[in-house]
Structures
1.
Amino acid sequence: MTVDLERPVVASRAGLRPEILIVLGLSLGQSAVYSLVTIVARLTADRPLSQQTATLNPSQSVRPYLDLTYQLLGIFFALVPVMLALYLLSRDSSPRALLGLDARRPWFDLGWGFALAAAIGLPGLGLVWIASELGINANLVPAALPSVWWAVPVLILSAAQNAVLEEIVVVGYLVTRLRTLGWKLGYVVLASAVLRGSYHLYQGFGAFVGNAVMGVVFALFFIRTRRVLPLVVAHTLLDVVAFVGYSLLPKDWFSWL
């Protein structure tokens, strides 16, 4: 019997279940578990949720260049699960072919990226305000880096890292694998959306709902187009605006949030 070394090896369905659990356990599934523990801790604390603070992009050290080192290392190692997911997908076919991670349609990717960012971002601000009024969200601090020259570049890198990690793992990888397992379309979309909402739960219930809705939109977009790059573009834009905007604009501008 001869083996065709040029033919990709398609993972068996039985092997995909532990594979998915391992990839998620090393990445955003782990974040979802910690987020669940955090929200329980917040709800059982001696202060209401609305009086607590959730800080994204905190400083890691009072020594600026040590802080920069920690920030860059955190960004790099957060992307390792992405490399793992792409490697595992490459056993079946080229990840670029599976997820649309190529440059064949740059204007499509950029155009839809900006459109999705606007469609998600503007209603998202309204949801943040409603959640704040209802007291079901913690006070969100998108950036807490010191005033140093590298703060804005690091925030942009952090935004891109979030986008690449979440969209490739939670949408591209997970949707592809669950469809291979034979899951119905509705359950695939629900799983991706609930996972996205779950690892944002530490911010409060408004963040869970908002991100779950975003997850539905993004999963359906990927299923229809088979391209994850517009989602990466949209997510990067949303986070850059949130992180850099909060860092540079006067803080009293955000008092209504």
Note: Residues 1-9 have pLDDT under 50 and may be disordered.
2.
Amino acid sequence: MLRYVTTNPGKVREAREYLGDAVSQLDFDYTEIQAADLAPIAARGAREAYRHAEEPVLVDDAGLFVRGFDGFPGPYSAYAEDTLGVEAVRRLVDAELDDRRAEFRCVLAYCDGEPFAATPDPVDRDDRVTAAATGAERDDQETEPLPVKLFEGVVRGEIVEARGDGGFGYDPIFEYDGATLAEMDAAEKNAISHRGRALEKFGEWFVERQ
């Protein structure tokens, strides 16, 4: 059984489209570290979740990256949405940038406690913050870092005035191929989603892993 670590059942439904019924939800509140990139955040969460569940886990982290702002809000997308609001982010792009290009990125992190063979997809073997998971010094069982396999999905578009009533978060201001994500139905959005693209990569690899 593969445990998808999330409080959002919609993510699990999307994962099952690529991975089948072997995926189940794990509602576990792992520690989200502060980092400029998605990968270390997801990798850290996967290690902590694996130690909690003691079975294979999949953790994702995602964000909106505006090119003209050097990727901001990026890993801080949820915080920016909660504090500034989506419309404020759009107005900031309008006021400050001529280049409206942006992209949604998702990084999936997989951990099953075992090593990985070398492949084109990156493996995170760093474990600097293991002790923070328990608030204690590392014990003998945690002297070896847990390797984490990473898979990235990206969808590129641009920031526009809000359109559409569907989706959530930044969907109304992110346009892809002439339509905002909020103007797409669920099937259209899932077909091009950053998470879906990462799941597709993971699914192909996971079949061989099993």
Note: Residues 2-209 form a domain with the Maf protein fold (CATH 3.90.950.10).
3.
Amino acid sequence: MFILRCHLNVILAGMLAVPVSGFSAAILPEASPDLSEPVLPAHICAKLAPRQDYSAGDDSQRLQSAINHCPRGEALQLLAGHFSSGPLTMKSGVTLWISHGAILAANTDPRVYDKNGRCGTLDDKGNGCRPFIVFKNTEGGGIVGEGTIDGQGGERMQGENESWWQLARRAQREGAAQNVPRLIEIDDGSNMTFHGITLRNSPGFHVTLKNVRNATFWGVRIDTPANARNTDGIDPVSSQNILIAHSFIRTGDDNVAIKAGAAGPTRHVLLVDNHFYWGHGMSIGSETVGGVSDIRVRDLTLDGTTSGLRIKSDLSRGGIVSDIRYENVCMRGNRRPLDFDTRYDAHAIGNNIPVYRDISLTHISGETGQLVLRGYDAAHSLHFALNGVHFSHAARWLIEAAQIRIGPDGVSPVPAGEASLQPAVVPVDCATHWIPFPVTDAPSVK
């Protein structure tokens, strides 16, 4: 098991035990330096070299066989070169180690992912494909290494005249749902580690966690074009004790989206020192019916995301979102740097009114754009604390049904109707925070 887990458990235990005021002031700053980077597995069950003739067949059978025969607590290592595979099922306690220079490419044939005859087509459900890599009811293990997993979402599907991403755009035009595979799906897992890996070009979401306990993403790179529809980066759903640290994400939808469906709440999520580029931002929602709480986002850059810090839900999927802390965030090039909206779908029907409360923004800096704080109504208003929040004078507030408390470090521009006795707000010094996306030197799949 990786070294990081013991440190993370201590921190998350503190998140459970310490009141909000004590946590945000004392626990997080003191605990964050104690986070230790995961180490590579000490035991390797097998090392696989790529086939000499990459164009002949794929590696599905030998990869799955090697995973199945790998003992718990050990790793299967892929050496530098090209591997191609259809769907893979991970074994409990087994780590997939993709070495520097190794590329694991997803098969582009919809038939190998098919669940019900619908993969690679449009319908009204969009759940007709198996994921490329699935962890189901697993404990331990994960994916590590400096190599790349390529979903080939922009490549033409085998036997078809369009790519996975083109299928998704056609679904948007026709008001349908696309049946495409996700890159990695974790269902009912625990104690998972993803370290150093590059994920790119997923046909759908890159990583989805459902009912997961204790998962770490450290130094992960997600790299997919901005116009690749519905390609979320990392989505914890009805999960607990999740750490995302020192990672770089640019994609065609939410960079991170924390959700909670009918399966239960999502809570105790910590994001530290991450960098987001194009994408839809640091999101909570839109599914919040199960409740989202105890979320900490610290030392984040949002460089060109459409939305910046975002909570989105509506009547069809709303729930309580509470105890959310954003601290030391730098933003630029965002249309909606702050986007907290309870009417994500204005036409939604239902009785699940979204409620956002006990949310604080401390030392947040951005440029221009719309700053949205929109509660549902007076009986379900937003509750926000703003302290040291600075945007340019060209930024404009859109505030409805919101209760705002301004801290001693002030807010600029001051929301209409809110008094501020503070002098000009001192913005966060973001100059040294901007980092170019660290493009991998791995060759193309082609």
Note: The mean pLDDT is 91.
4.
Amino acid sequence: MTADDDSRHPGEPPREHAFYGRRKGKKLRTAQAAHLAADLPRLAIALDEVGAGPLAALFPQPVRAVRLEIGFGGGEHLVSEAARHPDIGYIGAEAFLNGIAKATARVAERGLGNVRLYGDDVIPLLDRLPPGALERIDLLYPDPWPKRRHWKRRFVQADNIDRFARLLTPGGHFRFATDIEHYAAWTLRQLLADPRFDWTAERADDWRLPWDGWPGTRYEAKALREGRRPGYYEFRRR
């Protein structure tokens, strides 16, 4: 499907279930391909695993809570957080094969037992997860779809906010980072109007400065090089 093609074939899922973007980029490095073959089978989540029991059972080591990162890119933040919090399970969802390969290699090389990966459109996974199953959801530097006719493709939409509200435990958090001012305003407008969420910021530095332990990402580094200032927005589920 091209960026400008809004048509669907019979039997395709509705628009809110569609993945927009490339699934594969440049050729994988030899080591990345080797990790995919050797390590991804034990890290990958199959949909039929989800909902069959407690979400913590997805992980080979005990975890006290589970967090989800949607669109983890190269896995920099996902792996850093998992290494910092070995008692928390992390599910990373990314439809881009090259990102899956990078994250698989990073997880394997650090020997992390609290990470599972989902390599497809995240919507079926969100709909399969049980209510209140997640302590936190991270959406970091998603595609802003800057053209007005493509705004409906942005991930922060009413239907996905409903999914976040269903999946987050009371007191759980949704974290959103972007370097695109319009997307930040778009997200704030929707979340501030939703009675199920509270914006946690009390002062400007709460959204201007990264969260504690923030490792940075390659997307963020590019934004800073090009003069765009990132924002870090956090919302608490009531």
Note: The radius of gyration is 17 Å.
